[in-house]
Amino acid sequence: MAEFEDMMASDVEEYRRKGIWTSVLGDTSRLPKSLQKAITAAEETTKGNTGLHLMVSLNYSGRYDILQATKKIASKVKDGMLLLEDINESLFLSS
Asked: Which portions of this protein are annotated as coiled-coil regions (predicted)?
């Protein structure tokens, strides 16, 4: 992980200059705090770029996406913004 953290910190300025937009997929909350900060800095520094999109998956699985979508839908049902009958495949995929 230290190598990835070093790369994120050292290459972010080059990404900004070249118009590369960076984003990280996955649950970053379990990563070391210093790596979380490097990821956030890289994403913030490059978020306005419109060139190549560098997507990195860390601590990621399809289950993570399913869990996040399920939590989002359950929260909407709990808050009365959505009825159980309204839940279908297209709603699940868009969450």
From this structure: none
Whose tokens are 């996955």? That residue is: 26
Q: How far apart are CA 12 and CA 46, in angstroms?
A: 8
pTM: 0.65
Confidence bin at 47 (pLDDT 50/70/90): very high
State the Cα–Cα distance between residues 82 and 62, nearest whole angstrom.
24
Question: Where are the alpha helices (H) located in the chain, listed in sequence order?
Answer: 2-18, 33-46, 62-78, 89-94
Q: Where are the domains of the chain?
A: 1-60, 61-95
